[in-house]
Write a structure and sequence with these properties.
D-Maltodextrin-Binding Protein, domain 2, 2 domains, five-stranded mixed sheet, 23% strand, globular, disordered N terminus, Amino acid ABC transporter substrate-binding protein, PAAT family (TC 3.A.1.3.-), Solute-binding_3/MltF_N, signal
Length: 254
């Protein structure tokens, strides 16, 4: 073998090594970051071992596997979760988010996957009615940055109801303050109320307070049609499987 042939063979060998090395990089799965409320059971929460859990966590993980991408769940302050999405610090929101006209102006939503019924809860021994809970001197809790917080402010307080509305970082914290005697009631989803009662909190559901049922979906940045289509297709496939019913039963979501 002369020198020129030897150099040519060596170049081909190096090219082959280079292409082999690049293979795994080219095949690497896309990683999307899901922004979540870390204390919104049964949709999203952090379990006793410190890992994200809940209906939306397991659903998104199934979708990621089915659609060929990876997902990382990032606990995020709920009141700032949409600005965090817009700032590209997270890629989407799968955390029991309600679809509202105000949010539709800022994000694009997937197909809905759940309907949320909003109710007032009180201590188990309370004799209050829904109407009495809105009287002057009463204290109602709500999670800040939520559709229920805005609806109550726009449709109850502005219409002349005299109760005091207190904002909390999460719905479970508001319900705990009912038990502690700091609140008379809290506005939460029926699913969250049932979850809290199943965990032993001495609460009861007083009933709806007037807010229409919420439609729940995933949110992506405005114009991110690639991810929107990916999540939509994944949701359609998931909801057509027996696993979807198993998840809803496991997490008590009807």
């Amino acid at each position: 073998m002369n020198r020129r042939v030897a150099i040519a063979v060596l170049s081909l060998c190096l090219l082959g090594v280079s292409m082999w090395s690049a293979g795994p990089v080219l095949a690497e799965e896309k990683v999307y970051v899901n922004g979540i409320d870390a204390n919104y059971p049964p949709f999203t929460f952090i379990d006793a071992s410190g890992k994200p859990d809940g209906l939306d966590i397991k659903a998104v993980e199934w979708i990621a596997k089915e659609m060929g991408f990876k997902v990382r769940h990032q606990p995020t302050d709920w009141a700032a979760i949409i600005p965090t999405l817009q700032a590209k610090k997270i890629d989407f929101i799968a955390s029991g988010m309600s679809v509202t006209p105000e949010r539709q102006e800022k994000v694009d939503f997937t197909i809905p996957y759940h309907k949320t019924v909003m109710v007032l809860v009180a201590r188990k021994d309370s004799t209050l009615t829904v109407e009495e809970a809105m009287a002057e001197g009463r204290k109602m809790g709500v999670q800040r940055g939520t559709s229920e917080a805005k609806w109550i402010e726009d449709n109850l307080l502005k219409e002349g109801k005299k109760f005091e509305l207190r904002h909390y970082d999460s719905a479970p914290l508001a319900m705990e303050d009912i038990v502690n005697g700091r609140l008379d009631t809290a506005a939460v989803s029926l699913t969250s109320a049932q979850e809290a009662m199943e965990k032993g909190l001495p609460l009861k559901v007083l009933g709806p307070y007037g807010q229409p049922d919420d439609i729940t979906a995933y949110a992506v940045r405005k114009g991110d049609t690639e991810l929107l289509n990916l999540l939509n297709e994944g949701l359609k496939r998931l909801m057509a499987t027996p696993y979807w019913e198993e998840l809803k039963q496991k997490y008590g979501v009807k």
